[in-house]
Amino acid sequence: MTISRILVANRGEIARRVFATARRLGIETVAVHSDADALLPFVAEADSAVRLPGNTPAETYLRADLVIEAARKSGADAVHPGYGFLSENADFARAVTNAGLAWIGPDPDSIISMGSKIESKKLMEAAGVPVLADLGETATEADLPLLVKASAGGGGRGMRIVRTLADLPSEVEKASAEAASAFGDGTVFVEPYVEHGRHVEVQVVGDSHGTVAVYGERDCSIQRRHQKVVEEAPAPGLSDETRAALHDAARNAAAAINYVGAGTVEFLVDANDPSRFWFLEMNTRLQVEHPVTEAIFGVDLVEAQIAVAEGRPVTPYLPGEPKGHSVEVRLYAEDPANDWQPQSGTLTSFEVPGVKTEFENLPDGQGGIRLDTGFVAGSEVGTHYDAMLAKVIVWAPTREQALRQLSGALAKSKVHGLTTNRDLLVEVLRHPTFVAGDVSTDFFDTQELATRSAGVDETAVSRSAFAATVALAEVAREARKVQQGIPVAWRNVVSAPQVTEFVLDGSEENIKVEWFGGRDGYTGANADADVTVLAASPSSVTLEHDGVATTYAVVVDSSASLAAPVVHVDSTLGYVKLNRVPRFVDPSEQVATGSLLAPMPGSVLSVSVEVGQQVTAGQTILVMEAMKMQHTVSAPTDGVVSEINVKPGSQVGAGDVLAVVEGEESAEGEDA
């Protein structure tokens, strides 16, 4: 058959990625979208779009019946599932074909074979592919540490590391609950945890003519919460023998289930002895990190998927020898210093310098940046879906060049409006251990990274706060209607400096900037007395210190409050987000000491305490779910629970007071 109109049963960047290839091939496109996604770019870019009424995945993208009805109404003759959601749902794949539509994915039986990690390990063992033992309830002290994993899913959900046998039952229970929430199946299993391992995966594409093409391997070892952050191809530091063995094992795995379509066979490699590896799982879909494979082989994997779905052989897309090196980073809206907590809000600025292409492969033999993203400046990042903002991909002749180009582009990017992992990615790409090719899944547990610390670079914050102060003064100067000729902050009799106060985003740290304004411009006082202002505007401030001039790019966002704008500052020192403290505070906006605030919008899953209960610092007060992850809210100090404002099932907004824990010192003071 020949496909003429594709519906993408997904959202965001993967929908845009499939649309890009379809447009190039002359195939029309159909988007489906939730109410929350109605204004995102992928909806406008499709030739037609169908609304799925609702906001949550369960109401929209996980509703197979609504998606198939959307295909019928829009005249689509094929469905591409993207990744996540229904992409590895055999019932959905079967329903698509039963509706007379082409399914751009593997046969439902293949999905079933690999859909259960427990059953797939049995199949792979029979095919001669090495696997880790499923310990079940037979685990002993000698087997520690252990890993509890969800059988029906991935992405770190339903996964727990267990270091003592006493914790195993409770961790199994937690993992099962998270798996049931994320995948609709709470089945979990237990296997040995390889402490210093590497996550290496092999890309395959099989066709209906019996050919399985292998497109090399990728290293995806840099992970947090068992979710990938940095991916690269080829995998560094592997011998030719190990590489060939991995490729053969992946080919055997795909052939064992007569695999048709694009898929990824994932392996755990012993970082201490890379010749030892074990089968982890097979993802029967396109992977998030497929662009690095496309870059080194010069192939369009989505085009290959479409060709195979049309019944054509994969032969025209057979890979040659890989060229150069490609690295991809996942830019997330999250706070690495605060347990990777997902963030939500408006993306006020989004600029990545040096981008040569979006969603399509880089020109053959030319280095540069590729950007795959579901957002643009002004987009709203909600709480119903994954927090990934974009994938930034680079290709270069060597790994060293690729790391340098990608880290440089990220460092100069402007991503404002909410906290991201941008600075962490830059630090990883420049970290000596990573640059040396010493990669493993425990990287963040074993390496010192400044961006993982709750502490801050005092110099970066101090200079950025001074630059923000000057920019705010320039904003006020341009806005005033009278006395244009009088210098900003000029005083006839100078008795004391002006004071501008900020709160550093993500902390309770207050920063006071003391300064003077006059005929000679701006000068700092006290801590900033040795800083000279060379140039100033509302969007750019150049400061000189000890003979070195640094320019700070400033974005003042007063959309939420004119009196207390958010100020974003970028420089070679990094990105700093500051919240201006208003001179006068509305008493109604203040909260009681000891208030536990919702870190983001979400729903309350459970409440573990009662009013009047004595608690200790770190004790669980309640558990929330947001952005497909569970978040524990704990007592900040020893004390007594004096207030609980939520119950299981409550929907809360960011900053809502969930509960109040009165510290022991506070209680003693009241008694006195």
Give your account of this protein's structure.
This protein has 672 residues and is of the alpha+beta class. It folds into five domains: 5-104, Rossmann fold, CATH 3.40.50; 115-132 and 194-452, D-amino Acid Aminotransferase, Chain A, domain 1 (2-Layer Sandwich); 133-193, Dna Ligase, domain 1; 458-580, Glycoprotein, Type 4 Pilin (2-Layer Sandwich); 591-671, RNA polymerase II/Efflux pump adaptor protein, barrel-sandwich hybrid domain (OB fold (Dihydrolipoamide Acetyltransferase, E2P)), CATH 2.40.50. Helix content is 25%, strand content 32%. The strands form nine sheets. A nine-stranded mixed sheet has the order 13-12-9-10-11-14-22-20-19, with helices on both faces. An eight-stranded antiparallel sheet has the order 26-25-24-31-30-29-28-27, with helices on one face. The chain is globular. The model has no long low-confidence stretch (mean pLDDT 91).
Core attributes:
25% helix, 672 residues, D-amino Acid Aminotransferase, Chain A, domain 1, alpha+beta, Dna Ligase, domain 1, Rossmann fold
Strand composition percent:
25-35%
CATH topology name of the largest domain, in short, is D-amino Acid Aminotransferase, Chain A, domain 1
Give helix % range.
Answer: 10-25%
Number of domain units = 5
Summarize the structure.
By secondary structure, this protein is an alpha+beta fold. Helix content is 25%, strand content 32%. A hairpin with a 2-residue loop joins strand 30 and strand 31.
What's the helix and strand layout?
Elements lengths: L4 E4 L3 H14 L2 E6 L7 H5 L2 E4 L12 H11 L3 E3 L9 H9 L3 E2 L4 H8 L1 H10 L19 E5 L9 E3 L5 H16 L4 E5 L4 E10 L5 E13 L2 E7 L6 H17 L4 E10 L6 E7 L6 H8 L3 H9 L15 E8 L1 E2 L5 E2 L2 E2 L2 E3 L3 E4 L9 E6 L6 E2 L6 E9 L2 H13 L2 E3 L5 H9 L1 H4 L7 H4 L11 H22 L18 E7 L5 E9 L2 E4 L6 E6 L3 E6 L2 E10 L8 E6 L2 E7 L14 E3 L4 E6 L6 E2 L4 E7 L2 E6 L4 E6 L6 E2 L4 E7 H8 L1
Parallel strand pairs: 1-2, 1-4, 2-3, 4-5, 19-20
Antiparallel strand pairs: 6-7, 6-8, 9-10, 9-12, 10-11, 11-14, 12-13, 14-22, 15-16, 17-21, 18-23, 20-22, 24-25, 24-31, 25-26, 27-28, 28-29, 29-30, 30-31, 32-39, 33-35, 33-38, 34-37, 35-36, 37-39
